[in-house]
Amino acid sequence: MRLVRIAFATEDEKGLDSRISTRFGRAPTITVVEVDEGSGEVKSVKVLKNPGAEAASGAGVKAAETVANAGATVYAGPNPGPNAYLALQHFGIKVVTVTGTTVREALPKVLEELKSSGS
Question: Which of 3.90.226.10, 3.30.420.130, 3.30.565.10, 3.40.50.1370 is the CATH number of 3-117?
Fold first, then answer.
């Protein structure tokens, strides 16, 4: 069993039923899902407030730090801005673009992307 921790930029605190945000840095919440990469079984779900949502500047970098501090190795959601993307890369976090769905619906797509990319 290989567990992977995936952070999603989300609009609310509904866990797996949260809508994926249209923004990364200013998303209200970050939903972190720990899942067995092989079976797809969800082991834990944690919803965090995104400090970038209210930041005067540097929202994307603050969101990237939140993702890293949560122990996530994958970020899934809308494309992050250039500074946030560099911050995610700095932390060794893989970026998977997913929009227009819920965390629950996106999870199999993200896992498939990880398998196909060999991560």
Answer: 3.30.420.130
Distances (CA, A) of 89 to 45, 63, 81, 97, 101: 23, 13, 12, 14, 24
Asked if pLDDT for residue 42 goes beyond 70, the answer is yes
pLDDT at res. 1: 78
pTM: 0.95
pLDDT tens, residue by residue, 59-89: 999 999 999 999 999 999 999 999 999 999 9
Cβ atoms < 10 Å from Cβ of 24: 25
